[in-house]
Design a protein that fits this description.
Layout (H helix, E strand, L loop, with lengths): L9 E5 L27 H13 L4 E5 L7 H11 L8 E5 L7 H10 L5 E6 L9 H14 L2 E7 L8 H11 L2 E5 L18 H16 L11 H6 L7 E2 L4 E3 L9 E4 L5 H8 L3 H6 L21 H6 L15 E7 L6 H5 L7 E9 L6 H16 L3 E4 L10 H11 L12 E3 L5 E4 L4 E4 L6 H11 L5 H4 L2 H4 L6 H4 E2 L1
Parallel strand pairs: 1-2, 1-7, 2-3, 3-4, 4-5, 5-6, 10-11, 11-12, 11-16
Antiparallel strand pairs: 7-8, 8-9, 13-14, 14-15
Helix pairs in contact: 1-2, 3-4, 5-6
Length: about 475
């Protein structure tokens, strides 16, 4: 399968992870604390842009963080970029924090001598720290300078107050839009996902206003709704972080890691990417990321979870910046220090926790109580985590097990287990949780097919479980993955 170079429309440079706005939904936990490793060295900037141009990447986007937070540095980046790309092929994503007045907006754009494209974020999170007037000031000056502006509008159920201001901006400035919903990663992973409920209603209202003001029926290319955005063809969208690490996904999910631009040629990375699961399985016919939805656990919150969770084991390939759930294997015994274990988890991380027990501890309610103590302690400590696999029912009384299901939404069987299978990138053969290999993923239609194959081939459960009432009734069949030999 070939990745056509002309499908690589945009390469992104996260020029800095510094940002004075520090939004509550920021994927990369950006803040304003000046640290050298959060700023892309100019040699990495030059190397990235040069490699993108050599490999026919059509345009580049300078993002962050907030590129305008380091104005002098941004000026140097643009000077490099303009040696390789036309100004219309360069864009900058900004919060607009610098638009305190029209004078300040003009002074800033004049200072960097910018005549490319601006993409301005507008949502309830940015508005906590960036007044709408700032954005209007920038739009006014951009209109005078004839700069092309794209408004990046994030909406959810708490954004109804934003609808009219956005419609007014459309009427006055005739800007292009991208409308999308919350991406529950990074800081946003702790947000209540029910805020997504009214997205379609609000989106339609904005799109209707846009079509009316633009006097167009076909809005493709001018505005994207969240469904269009999530369902769009998964083409290569390389994003370079300050340390030079490149991810094929603009979100920097760990399974999409490609390499480091400082030490490798981009063409070599693309060659290796063709062997990656995401590329090899999804891209041949222009399929979409959402194809993953047919294979992932129903406990996953989105199809992105596959690239965020796998590979489970840290192979030392991707950097700390990768969006990921850190996989933690815990063997819980009567000697486990729950307090010490709980304190080892960090707030600004997402975890995928895999709990196992010794065979002798089956049916031991004390072990079940320790598991409960651990899970509710880290929940109280606001640790962001998911359980990767089910827990044996025999460790809990019915009341506690029902409470676990309600409070933590844990997986209850093999179908819901996130560890049911993984895929080796180089071979695309399924590797099951018991260590055995199966056919290539492309030979299966959905997760049900995979589970059916697994049940016919898997190892037998431990003998003690065969006499268990839960196993006999078919409500628990998980001993081979939870119980250690």
């Amino acid at each position: 399968m070939a990745i056509e170079e002309n499908k690589i429309s945009t390469g992104s440079l996260l020029s800095t992870l510094l940002c004075p706005v520090e939004c509550d939904h920021c994927i990369w936990f950006c803040n304003s604390k000046i640290e050298k490793n959060k700023i892309m060295p100019l040699k990495t900037v030059k190397r990235s842009i040069e490699q993108f141009k050599l490999n026919n990447v059509k345009s580049i986007r300078i993002s962050g963080g907030e590129p305008f937070y380091l104005e002098d540095n941004l000026k140097k980046i643009l000077k490099i970029a303009e040696n390789y790309y036309e100004k219309n092929d360069i864009s900058i994503i900004t919060s607009g924090f610098w638009g305190f007045s029209e004078e300040k907006a003009k002074k800033t754009l004049d200072s960097i001598n910018y005549f490319g494209n601006l993409e301005i974020s507008l949502d309830r999170f940015h508005l906590k720290r960036v007044p709408l007037k700032n954005i209007e000031n920038i739009l006014e000056i951009s209109k005078q300078k004839e700069l092309k502006v794209l408004l990046r509008v994030l909406i959810d159920s708490d954004s109804e107050f934003l609808i009219e201001p956005v419609k007014n901006i459309i009427r006055k400035y005739k800007v292009d839009l991208k409308v999308f919903g919350l991406d529950f990663k990074g800081r946003a992973s702790n947000l209540d996902q029910s805020v997504y409920n009214n997205f379609d209603t609000f989106k339609k209202e904005i799109i209707s206003s846009y079509k009316s003001e633009k006097n167009i029926e076909n809005i493709k290319g001018n505005i994207k709704g969240n469904n269009d955005f999530l369902n769009s063809s998964m083409v290569l969208s390389p994003s370079v972080f300050p340390n030079g690490n490149i991810y094929a996904c603009c979100d920097g999910l760990k399974l999409t890691y490609m390499g480091n631009i400082n030490t490798e040629n981009f063409r070599d990375m693309m060659g290796r990417w063709k062997k990656n699961l995401v590329s090899n399985f999804l891209l041949p016919d222009g399929s979409r990321c959402t194809v993953f939805s047919k294979f992932i656990s129903p406990k996953c919150k989105s199809h992105c979870d596959f690239c965020k969770d796998f590979p489970l084991e840290d192979k030392g390939l991707w950097g700390e910046e990768a969006i990921q759930r850190r996989y933690i294997k815990i063997i819980l015994t009567e000697d486990t220090d729950i307090k010490k274990l709980s304190e080892s988890f960090e707030l600004d991380r997402e975890y995928l926790i895999s709990i196992s027990i010794n065979r002798k501890d089956l049916y031991d309610k004390k072990i079940g109580d320790k598991i409960l103590d651990f899970l509710y302690t880290i929940k109280k400590n606001k640790i962001n985590f998911e359980l990767s696999k089910p827990l044996p029912k025999c460790l809990f009384n019915n009341e506690n097990y029902s409470k676990l299901l309600k409070d933590l939404d844990i997986p209850i069987n093999c179908f819901e287990c996130r560890e049911l299978f993984s895929v080796e990138n180089d071979k695309n053969n399924i590797k099951f949780c018991d260590g055995n290999y199966g056919p290539k993923l492309e030979n299966f239609q959905n997760r049900e097919d995979i589970l059916s194959y697994f049940k016919n081939k898997r190892n037998s459960p431990v003998n003690i479980c065969k006499k268990c009432i839960y196993y006999i009734r078919g409500s628990c069949d998980i001993s081979w993955c939870v119980v250690l030999n």
